[in-house]
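Can anyone check this?
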Amino acid sequence: MNNNETYLYNTKPNKNTDFVIWMGFPGCYAFSMSSLGYLWMFKSLDEHEDINIERICSDTNITKYNPNDVKLFGFSFSFDMDFLTIFSMLEKYNIPLKSKDRTIEPLIFAGGPVVTANPEPYKEFFDFFIVGDGEDTNLTAVNICKKYSNRDEALKHLSEVEGIYVPKFSKNVKKLTKKLSECIYTPIISDKAFFKNTFILEMSRGCANRCGFCLASYNNLPLRCVSYDNLIKTIELGLTYTNKIALLGAQISAHPHFHDICGYIYEKINSGQNIEMSVSSLRVDAITPDVIKTLAAAGQKNTTLAIEAGSERLRKVINKNINEEQIINAVKLAKDNGMNGIKFYGMIGLPTETYEDLEATINLAKTIKTANKGFDVSFGFSSFVPKPNTPFQWIGRQSTKLLEEKANFVKKELHKIGIHANVSSIKWDYWQAVLSRGDETLNDFVLEVYKNGGKLGAFKKAAQILNTNTDCFALEDYTLDKPLPWDFIEMSPGKNFLKKEYKRLLSETT
């Protein structure tokens, strides 16, 4: 326990148990303290008398518990490249990387969006995976591991639990979806966190808009919202510890009481309370004067809008049903109600994209810039990565050469009109696509990448050493009847629905 941490729940420092769990975060301490899911999982286990639990980050130097006493070592796995840090953390504590080489070491498991979507490229390194919402499953898993000290016996019983995938006892696994009966919030506030002394609360989970490429949407269906009363109670709890709050959710503006929450905060600020509030990106059609006034009053002077594509045709293809008039109006509302600037999120290389679509992005930017003198407009782009369990999982990426040409074109054209644009690394996005649609044959590949240092060159070198055709994962279009590595994970709404959406969206090409 660090003295810069404030716990918002009752801790039990002297527990009478020898059962030790490490909760691993594949990043530095500051990032871990701003990861809501990671901290909430820690809290949900830490509250139990019969579990000793410790947070372990990539920069942890001294541990409270001896590695030899640890029975379970769990990892948050949120980004495709997290495997590199996870491997280095296992090696740091002399734990063999592959499950088959471990005998007396702790059982190693992972949860999070990457392994919920497709755990197959990593299946040889973990003893089990939590698939879906893990708040309740984590405790079930811990109780089984406490009961059965024999590895195989514990894993056999774990494989019988809904929402747990044990590669050794392979079978179909149903993804768990939890009702949001409680509000998830930051249980430990720290001035060393990346978002310093910030109380984050989850307003909603999932997104009803279902963009064709979006893993965050499909991984978390259906959209679930925390009740208004619960949110108010949680906000009040947070404000007793800090004046900084952040509202989280893939689609917070779809919450039936989003405007009421903004009004509640605005009234508190108006009556003299010092509150700093931020929100994750807003939908264009959620930008209203009351929302912007609240954000401006709470100190958020810039906001982000995800428009994905500049042309209406392409927005229809990806199921982003907003028109140009709405986008232009949103910027005007933001400017007129106290914002200093807007950052747009876009994508390069979306299915059916042409240079005409990119030119539509430039023209839209020009229109916005011209109409809003002195207002800061910027763009951030990533390139399309096909993700499992989405309608676009069957569609491969365009070539790296073509995507880099498109990225350079967009940056250059936006620069001409005085708009700054960031584009994610096209080469890194390629390898992310390989991992996203990878199968079990990639286990030795990711190990080779790690052994060679994990930089861009290491991926290319690993593919050459192992003679792995990575283009078949990243660039190939799949037929709808092709068996997919992640088919054994039972998701709702299911593969037939995804096929229908795929056909429907790609029919929007004219």
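Reply from J.R.: I decoded it. DSSP finds 19 helices and 19 strands in the chain.
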